[in-house]
Amino acid sequence: MSTPAQTIDRPRTSPKKAGRISQPGVNPLVSMLKYAFILVILLISVGPFLWVFLSSFKSNLEILNSALALPARLKFSNYVMAFKIAPLAQFYGNSILIAVTGTLLNLTVLGMSGYVIARFEFKGKKTIMSLVSMALLIPGAALLLPLYLTVRNVGLYDNILGLILIYAGFGLPVSLYILSSYFLTIPKELEESAYLDGAGFLRTFLTIILPIAKPGFGTAGVLQFLLCWNEFQFALTLTTGLKNRTLPVALFYFKSQFASDYGAMFAATILVVIPSIIVYVLLQEQVVSGLAAGAVKG
Amino acid sequence: MALNTTKNIKWVIAFLVPTILLFLFMYAFSLIILFGSSFTDWTLGMKVSFTGLRNYLELFTDNEDFLKSVFNTVVWIGLQATVHVTIGVTVALILARREFYWKFVRTVYMIPNIISSAALGMMFLCFLNPDFGALNSIIRLAGQKDFSQNWLMDYKTSFFTVTMMWLPFAAVVTILVLAELAAIPESIFESARVDGATELGINLHISLPMLRNIIGTCAILAGTSMLQKLDMILMTTGGGPGNRTMNLPIFIYQNALKDNNFGLANAAGVTLILIGIVTVWIISRAFRMGHSNT
């Protein structure tokens, strides 16, 4: 509990305790503080977003004259304008392509190694796992320049492939943890009987294991997708020019262009944010369980 | 019976290789470049020469922006590992009662955490705008008619304002603590209630001690997240005014990609990693993590 609630509550509860009332702990003052606190949390979480959302339907004049008023009428001209000012359609395409392939690549690579790590004993397994945990400790910003140099040298600078590869690598530790711990929950007997029936390694993996492990892939996939969709610093440093930019970077580069047209700026911001919110609201349970699984291991 | 490794050795190797390659590409090469070049004088277009510790000496004795960046980064780590975690745990303890609103609050609270932080920075940039921003308008509406404050670019308020862009948004902490609370057997709380304990007493004396490990984990996650804050600062203040809101990622970004001073930037990168390791060490010590609850 927060400290203010605690100091206010203390003197009141001690005499009450002696009375042994049947519903302990329902102190009206504490309840009020509690609801006020939750209300503040809700307001700050959604307030700026709602304000930007409403403002995205206003004209520039409305925005400047009455920042808090509701839009006079619902018009989408700001959204049309946003697409005109910046090549948002192109950026949308790039973002979708990068997020989808980045996620698929990440899940394929780590699904394979996650399975082998969960199921087989081999030399170097411990080393792999401790190296991967170490990778969790390295902040992306420290890798900014080294990765920029590596990517330049292999010819993937300003190339969507480069970003896909980097994002797949960024999600490596978390996806590996989530997937390998999911594989561990699948009973071994399933595979053993498949082997007895004469199925080989690959067939067992593809036809027996993968279908059962779908929820694990779902969890890792949602987190990886959000990572790719939202990533900013590598999208900023590893691309140049308009062709290969993603949405978050577009906001940065067009900040000055948008500055003369506030309505379009609001609209562009909403366009970047909406897909993340939709993915989250639809797949909330996966996000929640993914975060829990990732953190416990980390 | 473990699955037979020797029989499937080819497959085992084949399934590991892509991950190993990805790891080498992303992390191993990068770390070698990072550490190696931090001891060199390396500017774009110039010859690389070994200079020993000179980059580090320059950073720590002579570079005000760097020292300010380290200071801010450390302060933000401290705040995030304490205040931020406290807020998240408080919300979790309230939501754990599963009153009618709990799922709604959990979902809404998460929104600032799942959207692109560049977009979040953009939102705050608009929300805090001195002319048309909502915050100043609200204050004007509340009575202070001529109120005008440039929250982000005023020397007096910039650090506080930037801090508030992430300090209260602790939904990840809330989710992790809620998951852990759900695993505590209900009977423990029941018997405490029968003994006449208040909800507050239960939270303080039963829940919190049992949550020690997960709160430690949250403090590490929250603290180390401050080692990567680049996008929100770049979108809002760019480290300014002056170097008021500069942190190490911004410093590295500016030195590496604007000034092309690779050696110096990488020495700062090594410092960033070291700060991370020290943070993790201190927090896991403070929470006696890994020890079971007794």
Explain briefly what this protein structure is.
The complex is a heterodimer of chains A (298) and B (294). With 298 residues, chain A is mainly alpha-helical.
In words, what does this structure look like?
The complex is a heterodimer of chains A (298) and B (294). With 298 residues, chain A is an all-alpha fold. Chain A folds into 2 domains: 3-55, no CATH class; 81-297, Orthogonal Bundle (MetI-like fold), CATH 1.10.3720. Chain A contains 17 helices and no strands. Chain A has helices spanning 3-19, 28-55, 60-65, 77-85, 88-119, 125-136, 140-153, 160-170, 172-184, 188-196, 201-212, 214-230, 233-237, 247-253, 255-258, 262-282, 284-297. In chain A, helix 4 crosses helix 16, helix 5 (88-119) packs across helix 9 and helix 10 (188-196) packs antiparallel against helix 11. The longest helix of chain A is centred in the middle third of the chain and has 32 residues, at 88-119. The two termini of chain A are 26 Å apart. Residues 1-22 of chain A have low confidence and may be disordered. In chain B, helix 3 crosses helix 8 (171-182) and helix 3 (64-95) runs antiparallel to helix 11 (212-225). In chain B, strands 1-2 form a two-stranded antiparallel ribbon. The model of chain B has no long low-confidence stretch (mean pLDDT 89). Chain B has one domain: MetI-like fold, CATH 1.10.3720. Chain B is an all-alpha fold and 294 residues long. The longest helix of chain B has 32 residues, at 64-95. In chain B, a hairpin with a 7-residue loop joins strand 1 and strand 2. Chain B has helices at 9-37, 54-62, 64-95, 102-114, 117-127, 134-141, 158-164, 171-182, 186-194, 199-210, 212-225, 231-236, 248-258, 262-286, and strands at 40-41, 49-50. Chain B is 67% helix and 1% strand. The chains are: A mainly alpha (298), B mainly alpha (294). At the A-B interface, helix 1, helix 2, helix 5, helix 6 and helix 7 of A face helix 1, helix 3, helix 4, helix 5 and helix 6 of B.
